[in-house]
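Dock 5-amino-5-deoxy-1-O-phosphono-D-mannitol; give full complex structure.
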Amino acid sequence: MCGIVGIVGNEPVAEQIVEALRRLEYRGYDSAGVATLENGQLDRRRAEGKLRNLEVKLSQAPLSGVIGIGHTRWATHGKPNETNAHPHATDRLAVVHNGIIENFRELKAFLETKGMRFETETDTEVVAQLVTYEMRQGRPPIEAVAVTLPRLRGAFALGFIFSGEDDLMIGARHGAPLAIGYGDGETYLGSDALALAPLTDEIAYLEDGDWAILRHKSVDIHDENGQLVHRPRHKILSGSFIADKGNYRHFMAKEIHEQPEVVGRTLAHYVNCTAGRVELPIDLPFDFKDLKRISISACGTAYLAGLISKYWFERLARIPVEIDVASEFRYREAPMEPGELALFVSQSGETADTLASLRYASAEGQHVLSVVNVPTSTMARESDVIASTLAGVEVGVASTKAFTCQLTVLLALAIAAGRARGTLSAEDEKTIVDALIGVPGLMSEAIKREHQIEILAREVSKAKDVLYLGRGTSYPLALEGALKLKEISYIHAEGYAAGELKHGPIALIDEAMPVIVIAPHDSVFEKTVSNMQEVAARGGRIILITDEKGALEAGLDTMATIVMPMAHPIVAPIVHAVPIQLLAYHTAVFMGKDVDQPRNLAKSVTVE
Ligand code: M6R
């Protein structure tokens, strides 16, 4: 994740931009940079490492432009050196970028055939060159950006300034957040309210697909179809920045929508996008190839992330995995051979049962690895090593972005294990890593099904009971769908392995109980379709969550079919988490429930 700030000002802006970047440093500090325009001339300063290095450069060679953009970087593509630092510039423009441009390789190849030259290893430079190419074809800056944006795939936010244009900045949001600030004869662009707080108290959040034209006295916001749109302005109060709901009614909604960005950030931390391989940012005090088994313990949604990872570790690394809910494991007196790996998963890092299990495993001589979101938590402190999920603060009690970030980290670990054990070839690793890099973009696509899901939620809200079914990694996801639905809507929901249906739960099928089936087109798709036939034959009403191919081949009547974009089967559970979260959310909202603070629950369960 990177931080973006822009100021269309009336006095030299470099100092203010650096101040704003300081508040964005939590988003990355691999490098930083500022570009400004003075009498139409572009100039920039960039520095590797922390912001103070940039400040030194600026003190030696100040910038005096009154319109400028700044960036603090968390490297995804290319080393964290000065060459790769933002803003990236051509003779026509400078651009800052947060997120990943997935199709940068094919765009770069296209531009090279047109004679464009590249200086960096970044995906961002492709954006700079593509807009420049369009301008060289005679398009004015706004039009050049407008034709470029639809060609970019991935989850990203962008900010541009242009040579010779002293009253123009363009911001664009596609899966990564971006806010507009309104001042007195000045306008601003920022990754979040926190960045803009000292500059203005009036901001508007861009929605996905929006792009904005900022001038000193006006801001025009267009949606992804190019239509002029109005986005509500908010007064921001000091002290409210950390727990800011943005344009959303609930934190849960915001956290669902943040997922393309936060998952992108997490995977950028664990994979080398350019090389297409996992590079763990931690030193493991053990070697995966020496392990005979992994024991996983966790609670609730974190347990279900662990259960999905069991499929990954066993399939990719051929290593047996035992998994328990921590409240059982801690008292089970499980025999553990010293020197094996005990893996714990927790958002808070404070869950009492998981912590007790961790202490048990530690006393049994296990290597303790925790996948946690709060790096200062007790579990983090008591583990031999932690793999941070980097999801940021999760306020909604129903875990959403922490879950998909846990999955991202666990998949990276399973891939690393497969490589270390010689069970995953470099080619297969690249295929899966490339699929993983595509996940933020697919999650953005999945979020576009929200309106359909919102309408469907009205039907679901009438049910007293709901059954979720799935096979393979869709089975733990079915359990998660049921958990999400019950915890915030209070509708009784059960998750089952689809193949278990005929061993009992099929007796429950009737017209009153929706049966939600998660079935991407994978190796067990046809088996799941057979189970759906069994439900349909008994008058059950099916809601099918599948992908484009699955929707074509399912061949049966459903109450509704939610069609996800195609994803590689290994990464599909991360993408398919989105519709089950949205369905739970909208059902609960429609029923008037307290979505962020559901009854009887707490965010961090520090008692048994
Ligand atoms: O902080 P943790 O991840 O250890 O919490 C575990 C569970 O309490 C948590 O996932 C809970 O199930 C959520 N409310 C689910 O949405």
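Observed: The two ends are 36 Å apart (CA to CA).
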